[in-house]
Amino acid sequence: MDQVTAILERLLALHPREIDLSLGRMERLLAALGHPERKLPPVIHVAGTNGKGSTTATMRAIMEAAGSRVHVYTSPHLVAFNERIRLGGTLVDDGRLMEALDRCEQANGGAEITFFEITTAAAFLLFSEEPADALLLEVGLGGRLDATNVIDRPAVSVITSISMDHERYLGASLEGIALEKAGVIKPGVPVVTAAQDDIALGVIERSALRNRSPIHIFGQDFAANEENGRLVYQDENGLFDFPLPALRGHHQLENAGLAIAALRAADLLPQPQAVEKGLQSVDWPGRLQPLMHGGIVDQCPQGAEVWLDGGHNPGAGVVVAAFMGAQEERCSRPLYVVCGMLNTKDPVGFFRAFEGLARHVATIPLSATENGRDPFELADSAREAGLEATPFDSLEAALADIAACAEKDGEPPRILICGSLYLVGEVLALNGTPPV
Question: Taking the model in full, what pTM does it have?
Answer without folding.
Answer: 0.92
